[in-house]
Amino acid sequence: MLTIREELPEEFLQAYPAELKSLLGGPTLIHLPGEQARPLFVSILLHGNEITGLLAVQTLLARYQSLLLPRAISIFVGNVEAARVGKRLLPGQRDYNRIWINASGAEHEMTHTVLEAMRERDVFACIDIHNNTGKNPYYAIIAEPGSDHLGCAALFSDTVVYARCPDTTCTVAFSGMCPSVTLEAGLPGDPAGVERTVSFLETCLHTPDFTSRPLHPVNLFHTVAVVKVRDCCSYGFLGEDVDLQLVNEIDQYNFHELEPGTSLARVRNGDQQCLDVQNADGRQVYREYFTVVGDNLQAAKPVMPAMLTTNRDIISLDCLCYLMERLPQSELGNQRI
Ligand SMILES: [Zn+2]
User: Fold this and answer.
1) pLDDT at position 333, please?
2) Which residue intervals of the chain bear CATH 3.40.630.10?
3) Residue burial 242-266, b: 16+ Cβ < 10 Å; e: rest
4) Multiple choice CATH, 3-217, 3.30.750.24, 3.40.630.10, 3.20.20.300, 3.90.740.10
5) How far is the CA of 94 from the centre of ligand 1 (A)?
6) Using CA atoms, how far apart are residues 170 and 155, in angstroms rounded to an integer?
7) Torsions phi, psi of 60, nearest 5?
8) What confidence tens digit (pLDDT) does each residue in 276-299 have?
9) Which residues in the chain come in under a pLDDT of 50?
């Protein structure tokens, strides 16, 4: 299902996300040469509606149309089927950012081929570009504690999250090979997010490594749990006829440390545990982070959510949110995540 090309299709730089399927046929790895031979691997559209990566790569490559790139670049264009209709993924498809693990099946074999191709080329760094749906700062995610990973991430944002869960992502798969970073570049197509991504990629193409420049202080967090709504619970927002009524604009809480007692939702049937809250060991930790007072679901301890969204599809396809705690840089790599 993967096509590998050694040149950019002519229409690529102007193509809309919906046109990539007919232009490329399917998921495609495009190798372009540069002055430095070790390629920067850039992954875009693993989620078909997250278009910032495509816009950023188009802007970047347009600058080098008649020039040799400072460094070779290998672009992986992921779920073009879903991009055709502006969806994260199509019904019946695997999530393209949950297939980067040793397993059988066409999608897994595709990721093995991509990883092998990049290993052979001695990949310089891996940048996987995403968007989210709620109010979040621009931030980067790393899966390894090395200073080159953190140094690369810090070039994009001073908000960095260290997370190895889920372990099926592109960033985790590359993290044993090279500095590997997920960019969360705000809402899909947000012009400021595109601009920031372009200048980050430009810096990556020019830098000899990610450890030689002084690292400015970063706000580093690590994920401590993932929160999902249990299938047995209906959910929606305040005033709706559902078991779990989330507060309106719940995404305002992203990257804000919540005080104990902060209300997140009204629950219809008391403390029936609508939420599945798992830590890195897969242990249920609902009681540690949440409590119900009256019919209010509240934070039980200081905690910081990320990726809270008001988009119901994302809540059912992915999760309600991640819970994070602040991590001193000196402790990076010393804890279970
Ligand atoms: Zn995504």
Assistant:
1) 65
2) 3-217
3) bbbbbbeebbebbbeebeeebebbb
4) 3.40.630.10
5) 13
6) 19
7) -60, -50
8) 999 988 899 999 999 999 999 999
9) 337
Residue-wise pLDDT for 83-129, tens only, equals 999 999 999 999 999 999 988 899 999 999 999 999 999 999 999 99
Instruction: Report how far ligand 1's centroid is from the alpha carbon of 131 (Å).
Output: 6
Interval between CA 127 and ligand 1 midpoint (Å): 13
C-alpha triplet 209, 53, 170: angle, nearest 5°: 65
In the block, tokens 């994009």 appear at 156
Q: Distance, CA 5 to ligand 1 centroid (Å)?
A: 24
Q: Are 290 and 298 in contact (CB under 8 A)?
A: yes
Q: What is the DSSP string of 155-198?
A: TT-SEEEE---STTSHHHHHTTTS-EEEEE-SSTT-HHHHHHHH
> Could you tell me the distance, in angstroms and rounded to a whole number, from the CA of residue 130 to the centre of ligand 1?
4
Whole-number Å distance, alpha carbon 284 to ligand 1 midpoint, is 25
User: DSSP letters along 218-252, please?
Assistant: -EEEEEEEEEEE-TTS-EEETTSSSSEEEPTTGGG
pLDDT in tens, 124-154: 999 999 999 888 899 999 999 888 999 999 9
For ion ligand 1, residues whose CB falls within 5 Å = 47, 50, 130
Read off the DSSP letter of residue 303.
Answer: B
Percent of the chain with pLDDT strictly greater than 70: 98
**Can you give the pTM of this predicted structure?**
0.90
Task: Quote the pLDDT of residue 121.
Answer: 98
